[in-house]
């Protein structure tokens, strides 16, 4: 499945130090992650 390839990339995005400096970007990624999970579960 294509999302299996995307998942490691998402993990890298989540754990970059820049995200912790920029909270707005973190919130956007978090919302995207929730939507992403919903798409997988449906």
First-residue to last-residue Cα separation: 14 Å
Mean pLDDT: 72
Q: What is the chain-wise order of helices and strands?
A: HHH
Residues in helix, %: over 70%
Segments where pLDDT lies below 50 for 5+ residues? none
Oligomer: single chain
Biggest sheet character: none
User: Structural class given helices, strands, pairing?
Assistant: mainly alpha
Query: What does the overall shape look like?
Result: flat
Number of H- or I-type helical stretches: 3
- What is the rounded Rg? 11 Å
Can you tell me the number of structural domains?
1
Strand content: under 5%
Number of strands: 0
Brief synopsis:
This protein is mostly helical and 42 residues long. The protein is 88% helix and 0% strand.
Fold and architecture overview:
Keywords: Membrane, Transmembrane, Transmembrane helix. By secondary structure, this protein is mainly α. The chain has one domain. 88% of the residues lie in helices and 0% in strands. It has three helices and no strands. α1 packs antiparallel against α3. It is flat. It starts with a helix and ends with a helix. 0% of the residues are buried.
């Amino acid at each position: 499945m294509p999302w299996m390839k995307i998942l490691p990339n998402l993990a890298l995005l989540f754990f970059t130090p820049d995200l912790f400096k920029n909270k707005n970007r973190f919130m956007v990624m978090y919302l995207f992650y929730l939507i992403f999970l919903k798409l997988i579960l449906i």
